[in-house]
Amino acid sequence: MDFHFPKAELHCHLDGCFRLTTIIEIAKERNIQLPTYDPVQLAKFCALERCDNLIHFLSGFAIFEPVISGDIKAIKRITYEAIEDKAANGIAYLELRVSPHFLANCDVEPMLYAKTKGNVRPRDVIEAVCSTTSEASVKFGIEVRIILCTISLLPEWSMEVAKMCKEYSSMGVVGIDIAGEGTEPGNLVQQRHIDAYQFCRDHNIHRTAHAGENGSAEEVEQAMQILNAQRIGHGYHVVDSESVYNEAKARDVHFEVCPRSSYLTASVDPDLTKHPAIRFLKDKVNFSLSTDDPAIQQTTIYDDYNIAQKYFGFSIEDIKLLNILALKSAFVEESVKNELIRKFETEYAKIT
Ligand SMILES: [Zn+2]
């Protein structure tokens, strides 16, 4: 069975979702140094093997991100191709997340990835991503919504991100996320993050947060209780605390599980038959499967489903169920959500 059915993916980073051939073309056009201009060789700079930790995994971004940062044409092309590639993998509903600050080279401090200052502000990044998304989603027949990321160790960006979530809600921005490499529980609950999440809550903007990936169960608890996150990015370490685990179940918090990513970032036991997702399914925890950073990992959703089948022991019916759970916890408008659920269930009923 090749998973030929409509899929929903909630956790995918736009800047971790590119074609290496495109990166090479853009780097040549923009005169940006890459370690090699051969796609096969360049793939070796991706996270193909298990890393020491999340920070090691994220170091791959330092090679690829400067190629697209500060260039609207490049940002549009990456967005367009990401949606085309997702549609080709049978993704019918996608939430793409992006840090507008990482891809900007103006009005951004610190400027982490862009090589030179220019005139691309964080809001220009969002407008480029949103306008390309509406064009590509129609062309490829896929519903796409955008989540804006703030960064755990850069709380000075958070309120601006929250306000832009509100400002661009009519252009397909549906939620806020907090991402990055901070793995201490205190990173998530810095006051400026709390204020930004409160702003989102007050304005009916959906909230997810990376927590309990490399970090602890306490981080998941803080994301739920203090940030009022409706979904948790990863959250594997929630199983380390029975009380936090039970609270997550009681709140019906949705976990965005990324099987291959969780292995590569060394966030879970290398023996994938011990993965927390196995307990999630058994205990009817609300969760779904996503890729995370398919280009950095050189994978597609099929790799994640294969892991779920081979190591987690999930059946095709289980994977279909997780797709329905993804839709139920999606940040999309209710009318579109209900239509998608109906469509998925009809298609699933045809393949038994
Ligand atoms: Zn992520």
Question: Can you give a write-up of this model?
Answer:
The protein is of the alpha/beta class. It has one domain: Alpha-Beta Barrel (TIM Barrel). 47% of the residues lie in helices and 14% in strands. It is built from 17 helices and eight strands. It has helices spanning 20-30, 39-43, 54-58, 61-68, 72-88, 122-140, 158-167, 185-188, 191-202, 217-225, 242-251, 259-264, 276-282, 294-297, 301-310, 316-328, 334-350; strands spanning 7-13, 91-98, 143-151, 173-179, 206-211, 231-234, 254-257, 287-289. The protein has an eight-stranded parallel sheet with strand order 1-2-3-4-5-6-7-8. β2 (91-98), α6 (122-140) and β3 form a beta-alpha-beta unit. The longest helix is centred in the middle third of the chain and has 19 residues, at 122-140. The radius of gyration is 19 Å and the shape is globular. Zinc ion binds next to β1. Zinc ion (ZN) binds at residues 11, 13, 179, 210, 233, 292.
Provide the CATH superfamily. Answer: Metal-dependent hydrolases
Bound molecules: zinc ion
How confident overall, as mean pLDDT? 95
- Portion of residues in helices? 40-55%
Determine Rg (CA atoms, Å). 19 Å
H-E order? EHHHHHEHEHEHHEHEHEHHEHHHH
